[in-house]
Amino acid sequence: MEEKNSCAQGRSSQKERLYSAAHRTGTDRPPCICPGGMMNMISKESMELSGCFWPEAHSDPEKMAGLAVALNRAGGFENYGVPFCMTVEAEAMGAQVNMGNSLAEPHVTESPIRGPGELEKLKPMDLSAGRPAAVLAAIRLLKKEQESSGVPIIGNLCGPVSLAGTVTDMGVLLRTFRKEPEKAERLMDFVAENLIAFGREQIRAGADAVCISEPSGTGEILGPRFFEAYSVKYVNRVLDALEVPVKIVHICGDLRSVYRQLAGLHCHVFSFDSIVNISEIKPFLEGKAVMGNVNTHAIGTMSADKVGTLAENALSKGVDLLAPACGLPVSTPLANIQALVAAAGRVDSGQA
C-alpha cells in the first residue's frame, strides 16, 4: 500500500523520523504527530473520510484502526495513535462511562470507589475483554498496515495520578495525599501496576511508542512537593517497566512551579500545554526532545494559513516534534491539520 505522507525517496520514513527526533540523533526534518489518548487527533472530517464513526470506533478494533489510518493517508499527522480518549482504563476498573457521540468523546459519569480506603472494591483491568482488548486488537491491525506504510504506532496510557483521580473523587484523592499517604500510595501502586500491564500489552501488540498523559497530575493541582512524590514517582514507575523505543510524557497546565522536577522524568520526549513558553522551559528539559505545543483552540477555529504560522513559530523556538498542545476539537478542519504537517515539511526545504 502506498504511503501517502512519505518523504521523497532516500528520506526517512515516518517511523524513522519519529525515532530520530525523539532521541535527537538528527533527522531530515521534525515529525508532526498527535499521539492519541488525551491528545485525540480525530475530527468529523476524518470520520467521514474513513466511514468509521464515534462512538462505535471506541470499541470496534477495525473502525478504531481505520480512523487512524484514514487521517494519516489524507495528509494528516505522521503517526497512528489509539485509543481516542482517556476512559479505557477507568472503565475497565469499574467506572461508569458515557460513550459520547460523533461529536463528543467518552467521559466517566461515576467512579467505582469513594476513596483510596475502598481499594479492595477496585477491580484490576481485564486486558482480554472490553475496550482494552479492542485497543490491543486495533494496534495489531495497525502493525500490519505499517508493513507497507512505515507509519509509527503510538499507544496511550492515562497518567497514574489522573487515573487515580478518575476511579475515585479527585478532591478526596488530594486530601488523602496530604493526610493519609499510606492509603494514597496503595491506590497509586495498584493503578501503576495496571498501567504497566496495559502498556506492555500495547508494546507486544506492535506499539513503537507509548505516550502517558497527565491532565490532573500537574504542578498547578499538586504543587511541587506532591508533584514529585506522586506524578514523577509513578509516571517513572510505569515508564521504567516499559521497553519501547520512544517514551512520551504530556503534562497539562502551567509548569513553572515544577520546571526543576521535569528533568527527573524518565521519558525521551516531553510535551506540554500551549500556555507554556517554549524558550523558557527548554533549559529545564536538557536531554529530552521537546514536543508541542500549537494551541488546539487555534487549530480548531483559525484559518489554515494562521495555523501554519503558529506551527512555524513553534518550530522556530526549537520544538523537536511538532504537535498540538492537547486533544483537538472534533470540529477541527482537515485543512488545518494538513497545514501543521506542511509547516514541518517546509523545514526540510528551508521555507519555514
Helix percent reads: 40-55%
CATH class: Alpha Beta
Distance between the termini: 30 Å
Provide the succession of SSEs: HHHEHEEHEHHHEHEHEHEHHEH
Structure description:
The protein is an alpha/beta fold and 352 residues long. The protein has one domain: TIM Barrel (Alpha-Beta Barrel), CATH 3.20.20.210. The protein is 47% helix and 12% strand. It has helices at 14-23, 44-50, 61-73, 88-92, 130-149, 160-167, 170-179, 181-205, 219-241, 259-262, 278-281, 296-301, 304-316, 334-349, and strands at 80-82, 96-98, 107-110, 153-158, 209-214, 246-251, 269-272, 289-294, 321-324. A seven-stranded parallel sheet has the order 1-4-5-6-7-8-9. Helix 10 (259-262) links the parallel strand 6 (246-251) and strand 7 (269-272). The radius of gyration is 19 Å and the shape is globular. Residues 1-10 have low confidence and may be disordered.
Question: Keyphrases for this structure?
Answer:
9 strands, alpha/beta, two-stranded antiparallel ribbon, disordered N terminus, 14 helices, 47% helix, TIM Barrel, 352 residues
Write the layout of secondary structure elements.
Layout: H1 14-23, H2 44-50, H3 61-73, E1 80-82, H4 88-92, E2 96-98, E3 107-110, H5 130-149, E4 153-158, H6 160-167, H7 170-179, H8 181-205, E5 209-214, H9 219-241, E6 246-251, H10 259-262, E7 269-272, H11 278-281, E8 289-294, H12 296-301, H13 304-316, E9 321-324, H14 334-349
Parallel strand pairs: 1-4, 4-5, 5-6, 6-7, 7-8, 8-9
Antiparallel strand pairs: 2-3
Helix pairs in contact: 2-3, 3-5, 5-8, 6-7, 6-8, 7-8, 8-9, 13-14
